[in-house]
Amino acid sequence: MAQAGGNPRSDGDSQQPSIFKVVLLGSSSVGKSSLALRFLKNDFREILPTLGCAFFTHMMEVDGKALKLELWDTAGQEKYHSVCHLYFRGANAALLVYDIAKKDTFHRAQNWWKELENEFQPEEIVVILVGNKMDLEDSREVTFEEGKTFSESNKLLFMETSAKLNYQVTEAFTAIARELLQREEQHGG
Ligand code: GDP
């Protein structure tokens, strides 16, 4: 059912950077909006305002190449399962986020992965599994190894992050961007 996954858009001018749609997926309160806020504005809030808009664009440069990321945040919509297919449509990449201090969110992330697998061919989408809130080490319920093992067996990128401490947030988005550019190059984009 995937429509345009794996095909970055450009404005028809080869000088223009490619545009990639990146969706943020995961249970409620795992820190999806916080990761976006940290990445886009280098800011963190204990209480996030309800976002009127769940769509952001961000220009970045990786290895000397410019690209534009369109970030889609569910903004609470993850509760409504029926929106998923529209939300996924045309995605080039996904951040699959869980909270390292909540085991159930790790299981939910695994379920999101199954849904992505049903929607996309592996070469159509870049997926990074993100264990967020790694500052909550004392309450950790998901080990680093569990995250790593799941990601390796499903060929996903993997990183533990803290939006709060600004740990590995830019790195997670950069890893996605680098992989997207590499795939584009391989396919003659
Ligand atoms: P979302 O529902 O997945 O978008 O989650 P939010 O970004 O709204 O975050 C939910 C709560 O977790 C908020 O109170 C955030 O301040 C908090 N939070 C987000 N990221 C982190 C983190 O890395 N560490 C800690 N300790 N709290 C975080």
Give a short synopsis of this structure:
This protein has 189 residues and is an alpha/beta fold.
Task: Give the arrangement of secondary structure elements.
Layout lengths: L17 E9 L5 H10 L13 E8 L2 E9 L10 H5 L4 E7 L3 H17 L6 E7 L11 H10 L3 E4 L8 H18 L3
Parallel strand pairs: 1-3, 1-4, 4-5, 5-6
Antiparallel strand pairs: 2-3
Bound molecules: guanosine-5'-diphosphate (GDP).
Structure, explained:
The chain is built from five helices and six strands; from the N terminus they run βαββαβαβαβα. The chain is α/β, with parallel strands linked by helices and 189 residues long. It has one domain: P-loop containing nucleotide triphosphate hydrolases (Rossmann fold), CATH 3.40.50. β5, α4 (144-153) and β6 form a beta-alpha-beta unit. The radius of gyration is 16 Å and the shape is globular. The mean pLDDT is 87. Bound molecules: guanosine-5'-diphosphate. The site of guanosine-5'-diphosphate has 18 residues, from α1. Pfam families: Ras. It is a lipid-anchor.
Low-confidence stretches: none
CATH architecture: 3-Layer(aba) Sandwich
Computed over alpha carbons, the radius of gyration is 16 Å
For the largest beta-sheet, the strand count, sense and barrel status come to: 6 strands, mixed
Can you tell me the CATH topology?
A: Rossmann fold
Task: Calculate the terminal CA-CA distance, rounded to whole Å.
Answer: 23 Å
- Give the percentage of residues in beta strands: 15-25%
SS-based class: alpha/beta
Amount of helix: 25-40%
Spatially, the strands of the biggest sheet line up as 2-3-1-4-5-6
EC number: 3.6.5.2
Keywords: Cell projection, Endosome, GTP-binding, Hydrolase, Lipoprotein, Magnesium, Membrane, Metal-binding, Nucleotide-binding, Phosphoprotein, Prenylation, Protein transport, Transport
Organism: Monodelphis domestica (Gray short-tailed opossum)
Family: Belongs to the small GTPase superfamily. Rab family.
